[in-house]
Amino acid sequence: MKLSSQSKQVSVFLNNDISVSCETSINPEMSLDDLLTNCKEKLNIEMHSKCIIYDSQGAELSDDDIEYLNEEEPLFLSQGEEFTKSSTIALYNNVKPLGQGGFGSVSLYEHRYTHAKVAIKSIKLKTLVSPEDINRVYSEIAALRELKHTNIVQLQSTFTLNEEICFVMEYCSGGELSAYIKTYGPMPETKVYSIAMQIVDAIRYCHNSKIIHRDLKLENILFASDSYSMIKIVDFGIAGMFNLGKSGERSSAGTILYMPPEIYKSEDNRANPAIDIWAMGCIFYYLLTGKHPFVYETVKEIISHIENVDYKPLSNTISKPWHKLIKGMLRLKPSRRWDIRRIQAHLEKYYEQPDEQVSEDSEDEEEKKVVVQAKFHKANTLTRPSNLLQLPINHFVGKSHSPSRQSLSDKTSDGRRVFPKSPTASRRAFNMFDFKK
């Protein structure tokens, strides 16, 4: 049964050169050969050429498909070559540039027929001059294909076009988090809780998928819309894989203000969840204060303050839960930073109960406990032996204030040495045994 006897207008693009196209009419009574003849004539292609017509998904058309063609879907004419994925760009009109980077650019495109907006990131192949550059691009493709989360930008497709690799991604119209802070200043705590919980949930999902973002920063977190409520994390170009208990992928790449001390100290540059924890701590600090915790005039100063975890404490006007959280995330040793689950639980607890009392267990307090325990252990070793044989020799004889008992000894008639009894020996022994009680 025919769906319609009316003619339709469809756009047909040349498969290997989308700058060449034509409009042609179709109707249910037409055959595929009729359509091919019309297209060849309008595109100045020799009639004897063997051609194929593909739909926008790359499927080859047959006679049975003609009556079901949609005016909103472009077609692609091939002169024998396979469908070219770059033909995807023909579905969109370029609206405006969104940003420019070292590897390429991002522009806003609008679908010709559905009018849906997408962001297309184009990376020039000639800028990929090293294996690390190439790996960065393909790492991002692999990561985005794997990650399906509400707060992670979705990759719709990829293709090559005119010596460029193109990523077709969902468009986030709200812009970068950094631009929002510059415009409106620090966020109220309730909004920071909302944003922070979204970031943490997305990064926990990444870590569960064994992916470390490694370049979390304000510029890589976008608002999905101009309602400024939902965020999307972008740019997984230097993301790394890790396995708990095993060596993760190594890289010293990142953004200076968000990189942790162990990277600068060349102690450990393996992919590790603690790298993202540190960066999130810097982000939350900025959302609350409008300033980076480690921003200084020179790179040398910045690195020095990061290596010493030397940043200005949060103001007393900011509630205690944030003080505790930032201290837990910005810790020198990666192993002592709060893990993602503890961070998430903390945020959820104090978002719902902002007036709940906060216990003091900052890194400083823990360090004090460690020092006290170490001193007590040392003192215990010296003053509380389990038996007298464990005491060091100089506990009984002090070289600095008394002569050797050897020099005070006498010989008996049978040649044995007799030592004078120390006047304090009995009291010292008594005191030690008494202390043990």
Automatic annotation (TrEMBL):
InterPro entries assigned to the protein according to its UniProt record, in alphabetical order: Kinase-like_dom_sf, NEK_Ser/Thr_kinase, Prot_kinase_dom, Protein_kinase_ATP_BS, Ser/Thr_kinase_AS
Recorded superkingdom: Eukaryota
Domain Protein kinase: 92-351
Keywords noted in UniProt: ATP-binding, Kinase, Nucleotide-binding, Serine/threonine-protein kinase, Transferase
Binding positions for ATP per the UniProt entry: K121
Biased composition regions of type Polar residues, renumbered to the chain: 401-410
Its EC number(s): 2.7.11.1
Signal peptide annotation: none
GO molecular function terms listed in the Swiss-Prot or TrEMBL record: ATP binding; protein serine/threonine kinase activity
Enzyme class: transferase
Annotated spans, Disordered: 397-425
Assembly and binders: Monomer.
PANTHER family listed in its UniProt record: SERINE/THREONINE-PROTEIN KINASE NEK (PTHR43671), SERINE_THREONINE-PROTEIN KINASE NEK2 (PTHR43671:SF13)
UniProt record similarity statement: Belongs to the protein kinase superfamily. NEK Ser/Thr protein kinase family. NIMA subfamily.
Full protein name: non-specific serine/threonine protein kinase
Organism phylogeny: Eukaryota, Sar, Alveolata, Ciliophora, Postciliodesmatophora
